[in-house]
Amino acid sequence: MDADIFSQPLLSLCAATWTSLLREAENVAQAEPILRPSLEASVLRHGAMGPALADHLSRKLACPELSAQALAELFAEAIADDAGIVDAAVVDLRAVFERDPAAGDLLSPFLWFKGYLSLQTHRMSHWLWRHDRRHVARQIQSRMSERFAVDIHPAARFGRGILIDHGTGLVVGETAVVENQVSILQSVTLGGTGKQSGDRHPKIRHGVLIGAGAKVLGNIEVGEGAKVGAGSIVLDDVEPYTTVVGNPARAVGERLHGMAALTMDHTLHPPDYAI
Question: CB of 225 within 8 A of CB of 258?
Answer without folding.
Answer: yes
